[in-house]
């Protein structure tokens, strides 16, 4: 059985809090994303999503349906994906790719009004760019200045 067969996407629950708060990232990755412990509470239009390997949280990301999305897309039905991270101890096992492959069905079921996911990826973060391209995200050709340089805007149609 493939090691990614048990990957699921779930909405945040307090039962995952201790494990999410213990996440670590390599120094070269921390510049591109945020750890889950930075998001203690869900705010209006911001959804904390946990990447689960069976019953163990291995990753995390945010989905936004706030005004912030308009910085990346003119589509009123788009959502913004940010802060994708896989705990350092769980990297290299295909979890991020499998989670992103599940994104389409998860969003369609949980956010039926959404027909597009957009994200910004730093031009220096080639590993993330390759991951997003492999799972169907397309470069929109739009660019945005980010905190540490140019970001490519990518989208996935749902």
Task: Describe the secondary-structure layout.
Elements (H helix, E strand, L loop, with lengths): L6 E5 L5 H5 L5 H4 L15 E8 L2 E9 L13 E9 L8 H16 L5 E7 L3 H9 L3 E9 L2 E9 L1
Parallel strand pairs: 4-5
Antiparallel strand pairs: 1-2, 2-3, 3-4, 5-7, 6-7
The largest sheet, given as strand count, sense and whether it forms a barrel, is: 7 strands, mixed
- CATH top-level class of the domain at 7-111: Alpha Beta
CATH A-level architecture of the domain at 7-111: 3-Layer(aba) Sandwich
Runs in which pLDDT lies below 50 for 5 or more consecutive residues are: none
Total DSSP helices: 4
Order of helices and strands: EHHEEEHEHEE
Domain N-acetyltransferase: 7-158
GO molecular function: acyltransferase activity, transferring groups other than amino-acyl groups
InterPro entries: Acyl_CoA_acyltransferase, GNAT_dom
Organism: Halalkalibacter okhensis
Describe what this molecule looks like in 3D.
With 158 residues, the chain is α+β, with helices and mostly antiparallel strands. It has a domain at 7-111: Gcn5-related N-acetyltransferase (GNAT) (Aminopeptidase), CATH 3.40.630. The protein contains four helices and seven strands, in the order βααβββαβαββ. It is globular. Residues 7-158 form the N-acetyltransferase domain.
